[in-house]
Amino acid sequence: MVDSLVAQECLVTVFDIDESGFSTVKDMHPGIQCVACDVSDYDQVSAATESYFAEHGAPDVLINNAGILYSEPLIKITESGLQKHDPLAWDRVLRVNLSSVFYLTACVVEKMVATRTKGVIVNISSVSAPGNAGASAYSAAKAGVNSLTQSWARELGPMGIRVVAVAPGFMDTESASAAMSEAALRETIKRVPLRRLGKTEEVAEAVLAVIANDFFNGKVLELDGGLIV
Fold first, then answer.
1. Per residue, what are the HEC states of 5-37?
2. How far, in Å, CA of 23 to CA of 51, rounded?
3. Which residue among 17, 125, 165, 196 is least packed, with the fewest CB closer than 10 Å?
């Protein structure tokens, strides 16, 4: 996404908890500003947003892309008996995948409205939003993202702020490979009509498309190679 946005001559700032990746981003794009921020922490988001606004003013595009994959059944049978879904894992997945979207959008939109800046919020959702077995927290979080997308589109549209979502299917990423066994990955690929995983570049292209189309609003663009038809 950063590569594609820079190619469009956008001024890009990255908020990320993983500071180790900042040098890589800056080596590729020296003009990019990187800000250490845990987007699942409201106080950090608020402070980082205030600092950004003081330096650059209100942004006209926000991409909510932070997320973690997590799989665990609600109840699983173990040698020692029944085991419930880890409540701490539930909380963490919801904070990172859903609360971060609320925190960033609230803080950024406040500045946009105050300065009468028109623009677009792009939420990265997932085709898992309708519900996947063994992914209670992840699916619930992404369903929440879709709901927020529709609610905010109605709420903010009259102020010239669009809210949209892009929902990737199974992508060729390190996190996807780490979350699935090789056998499960092969079975997943068989279910995709195009018989392959998606590419991160294709997600970036979809994000640029929904940013550019000024009449696309309140919708979730599913990018899954035909997995859900």
1. HHHCCCCCEEEECCHHHHHHHHHHCCCCEEEEC
2. 21
3. 196
pLDDT at 229: 62
Task: Please report, in angstroms and rounded to a whole number, the separation of the first and last CA atoms in the chain.
Answer: 26
Q: Please state, in angstroms and rounded to a whole number, the distance separating the CA atoms of residues 53 and 129.
A: 32
Burial of 112 (0-12, 13-18, 19+ CB in 10 A): buried
How far is 165 from 46, CA to CA, in rounded Å? 23
- 138 has catalytic annotation: yes
Q: DSSP character for 157?
A: G
Pairing label, strands 81-84, 119-124: unpaired
Q: Which residues of the chain have pLDDT under 70?
A: 179, 229
Q: What is the pLDDT of residue 196?
A: 85
For residue 5, give the amino acid letter: L
Instruction: Classify residue 165 by burial, with Cβ atoms within 10 Å: 0-12, 13-18, 19+.
Output: buried
Query: Tens of pLDDT along 96-131?
Result: 999 999 999 999 999 999 999 999 999 999 999 999
- What residue ranges define each of the domains in the chain, with the CATH number in brackets? 60-223 (3.40.50.720)
Cα 91 to Cα 47: distance, rounded to the nearest angstrom: 23
Residue with tokens 């077995």: 133
pTM of the model: 0.91
98 phi and psi angles, rounded to 5 deg: -120, -50
Tell me which of 52, 70, 103, 138 is the catalytic residue: 138
